[in-house]
Specification:
mainly beta, 5-stranded antiparallel beta sheet, 14 strands, elongated
């Protein structure tokens, strides 16, 4: 009898855990980033569908626009949409520079000293974003960037 109860409890726990993984933990749309060095975007929510893009850029920000089981329909910075398996995505907040050059400043204000200059296409991890500015870290080069100069988890 104990084995039967233990088995039933295990099945129930796995079902709840599977449902938690399969369902969105937050409402769509929401921001995510690529967790792998290579990630395939597919035309449909299954490995049976062909890849329409292969991304080779860990931390690239994407916007999740739909959830279907363990699959997420995402939009990349250029507007391309497709499906990625949830294991390819992370909740790490990132952004990509969309302006020609984005100064990374010492503090979150226009007159602050520029520490670095990030060119279009640079990807970095985001800290806090408020007042139109975000703390931005591009491989150890840290500073504040205008939220309008980047695309990603800036709260926009």
């Amino acid at each position: 009898m104990k084995r039967l109860l233990l088995g039933a409890a295990l099945v129930a726990a796995l079902t709840v855990a599977g449902a938690a993984l399969a369902g969105p933990s937050k409402p769509v749309p929401y921001w995510a980033s690529l967790s792998q060095d290579e990630a395939r975007m597919r035309v449909g929510p299954s490995l049976d569908y062909p890849s329409n893009w292969i991304y080779r850029r860990r931390d690239l920000p994407v916007k999740v626009v739909q959830v279907l089981g363990l699959w997420r329909k995402v939009e990349d910075p250029d507007g391309a949409q497709g499906w990625m398996h949830v294991r390819l995505l992370s909740d790490t907040p990132t952004a990509i520079v969309r302006s020609e050059v984005a100064p990374l400043r010492e503090s979150p204000r226009d007159g602050a000293r520029a520490l670095f200059r990030a060119e279009r296409g640079v990807v970095g991890r985001l800290g806090d974003c408020s007042g139109g500015w975000c703390n931005f870290d591009a491989k150890g080069q840290r500073g504040y960037v205008k939220a309008s100069d980047v695309w990603g988890a800036t709260g926009s």
